[in-house]
Amino acid sequence: MNEIWTEKYRPKNLSEVVGQKHVTARLESYVRSRSMPHLLLTGPAGTGKTTCSLALARELFGDNWRGNFIELNASDERGIDVVRGKIKEFARTAPIGAEFKIIFMDEADALTSDAQAALRRTMEKYSGICRFILSCNYSSKIIDPIQSRCAVMRFKPLTSDDIRGFLSRIVSEEKVDIEPEALEGLVRIAHGDMRRAVNSLQVAASLGKRIDLDLVYQTAGMANPDAVKSMMETALDGNFIQARNQLDDLMITNGLSGQDIIKQIHSSIFDLGVSDYDKVKMIDKCGEVEFRIVEGSNDRIQLEVFLAYLVMVGGKAR
User: Fold this and answer.
1) Distance separating alpha carbons of residues 135 and 138, to the nearest angstrom
2) Which domains are seen in the chain, by residue range?
3) Does 277 have pLDDT greater than 80?
4) What's the mean pLDDT in 180-191?
5) Could you read off the pLDDT of 260-276 as tens digits, one per residue?
């Protein structure tokens, strides 16, 4: 495998982008009119923001797109000097065979407040020959003056059908030997993030053997949800020691941290055969334990506290 599949199968045209028709329809109208405003693309990771920006540049500029498009990552270059230097230098040069050029800033919500203030003026001053596309996960971290200068486009998490269809195409073209249950497992662990799904598939395929469900969870750095659910049901039945042993197996066998486990516990609560009121109590306790772990408490102690709480909820301690 000489190529990263997320790049190999990245859509080259807006029409190929999966699951974001409400966004690509607007971008295609900009291509037809050969004009566009500054754009603010916001939404979860792995939903197509960078892909749409690259596809838009290709369709607008054709063979000259590399000369009229620059991509920066604000996480690496987040200070005011970058705005005053690299960005301003590119913005002030004339486009090649086009009406304007595009500066794409990924993870723009990582820009400092001073950098955003400087960027605001640069966007205004060079708008005649340059357009900005800002990509972020949280639009609330972008200052209002920049938001008001941009057309905001919100990307949704991809649906299970979208991810399943794209993965099936890769499986077919790469001739990957995968069980149907494993493919569904990839769809579940993606949580709407196509990049995560494709990367997990490639890691599993690189091992050179038939991909089953257990292999999918191992390569994704997750425990099997059935094992997590079994541990919780054991605690609800009142067998704390056995549940504690199952917790040890999950953490040691899969090499998971307390935060990883508590996130999967949260997801599994909804599959338990208990009343809604008991689920409410568990979610409340789960949030408390997760907060303590994040703040630095001992992972093992906090997870055992949660298991002890499940024993009390079940009311069957023995």
Assistant:
1) 9
2) 5-154 (3.40.50.300), 160-219 (1.10.8.60), 225-314 (1.20.272.10)
3) yes
4) 90
5) 899 999 989 998 988 89
| Percentage of the chain lying above the pLDDT 90 cut | 50
How do residues 27-66 score in pLDDT, each as one tens digit? 999 999 988 999 999 999 999 999 999 999 999 988 888 8
Question: Strands 150-154 and 101-106: what pairing?
Answer: unpaired
- pTM assigned to the model: 0.82
